[in-house]
What we know:
Strand content: 5-15%
Number of strands: 6
Amino acid sequence: VKSQKLKIINILFVGVWFSRKGGELLLEAYKNLVRHYPAISLTIIGQIPSNVKVDHLPNVFQKDWLPREKLLRDIFPQADILVLIPQRVEGYGFVVQEAMSFGIPCIVSRIGALPELVEDGVTGMVIRPGSARELENALRKLIENEKLRQKMGTSAKARFLTHFSVTISNKKLLKVYQETLSLSISRR
């Protein structure tokens, strides 16, 4: 009998402001899920407040900070799911775009621009801010269904390439500059 190696499903959280970005909610969901899914891991890039303890949780890896090159070279390629779930405010969610560029499905909260980046049910899942139940359900779906993770990841990468790549972003920015310049000239 061949022994099958169990694939670890890596959940990634990247955020300078752990609490503001939903870190505690993710830890609570992870604590509940890891009991049922021992083949999951959680990588946290960002400083965790001193009152939040993770050393009792299995398969949690944390770094206060990593250079962007190391994130792009070593961390994103190993991730299966990205979670960014602020409860009150989020400026943009650049880390979501980075994850999408690697074909990683994202779970985000319905805050700021995040629902504009992630198409709910297509490139990831958009949950209600602060909803532990919705977060656990979204994670459970992606943990249990490899085909869904792959399909959403493929869609995430395609969405990144058609809407957010450097080439596309530069074209959009050039258009804004040109429109602004033509408005300025026409008002003279």
